[in-house]
Amino acid sequence: MRYTITHITTFSYAAPMRYARCNLRLKPFDWAGQTLRDFAITVDPHESMMRGSKVSGFPGKVERIVVDKPTTALVITSKAGLVVDRPVPGPEAGDPSVAEVAQAARESTDLSMTGPANYLFPSPMIALTSAITEWVAETMRPERGIVEAGINLTKRIMREFRYDGTATETTTTPAEAFEKKAGVCQDFAQVMIAGCRGLGLPAAYVSGYIRTIPPPGKPRLVGADATHAWVMLWCGPRRGWIGFDPTNGIYMASDHIVTALGRDYADIAPIDGIFIGQSGQKIDVSVDVEPHGD
User: Fold this and answer.
1) How far apart are CA 86 and CA 80, in angstroms?
2) Structure pTM?
3) Phi/psi at 70 (nearest 5 deg)?
4) What phi and psi values does residue 121 have, to the nearest 5 degrees?
5) pLDDT band at 235 (very low <50, low <70, confident <90, very high)
């Protein structure tokens, strides 16, 4: 499947903003089954822009921009063209068990950006709690195959948690979302990650996009898509990283586009940074995931 993804973020200020420095994690990167063809970022006001990039501690790069002239609006637009050809994964004969994957993670000496050790421990936004670990352990039993157990946990979260955009905020902890059994994709992903890490299983937080298909007879609404979050679970040296989407109860496949991968949301927020001004800001986001066929 070929995609064109347009992501527009508009910051509006009640009084002129004098200075802004932003970190942008909007550029998809090449991953198994995903190839980036082209990418561009535009910033308005463009005449105030200074751009640079740095290597992150995780896959992909962080683009940086600085706006140093007063403005009441800042518009950041990214546009990417990709090809995604990723088969739906599934359990296979000979898959390692949950216990075997945990042991392999402890013994791994891979210190690369995608090495399991980077995603095995608590992170700034994902603490480990006994309540989540015990709940996840009911599904991720030691003797079960890792991929079978992973998709069953994914489906269980979808069934037992309520999607509610008013229940949580960006700063909500996995423990708080777990107690409410409600939240959004960020919460579902972070609960799954917390429980897996509590069992010694490497789990990463993924930010990106998912193709949405309109109801029969209805047109695709341009700009009505949104960023999405899900989980990468390390399934041993042979199978590697496999994506699980607990919001939708499915595997990561050709409808998912990976933009960033890290330990939690704090590592890979699409845009973060600072601004200097006299009042707060309003943020509006428009995302369009346009498919072009196979």
Assistant:
1) 18
2) 0.92
3) -60, 140
4) -115, 165
5) very high
Q: How would you list the strands of the sheet with 250-251, edge to edge?
A: 250-251, 241-245, 227-234, 203-210, 256-262
Task: Find tokens 């980077």 and name the residue.
Answer: 118
What secondary structure letter does DSSP report for 57?
Answer: S
The pLDDT confidence band at residue 223, using thresholds 50, 70 and 90, is: very low
Distance CA 146, CA 236 (A): 8
Residue 74 forms beta bridges with which residues?
Answer: 11
pLDDT tens readout for residues 148-169: 999 999 999 999 999 999 999 9
Residue 146 near residue 97 (C-beta atoms within 8 A) = yes
- Total length of the chain: 294
Rounded CA-CA distance 55/51 in Å is: 14
For residue 222, pLDDT over 70 is answered with no
pLDDT value at residue 64: 87
Predicted pLDDT at 54: 63
Residue identified by tokens 């009084």 is 15
Q: Quickly count: other Cβ atoms within 10 Å of residue 288's Cβ.
A: 18
Asked if 39 and 263 touch (Cβ cutoff 8 Å), the reply is no
Domains detected in the chain:
2-84+269-291 (2.60.40.2250), 98-268 (3.10.620.30)
Residue 163's beta-bridge partner residues?
A: 183
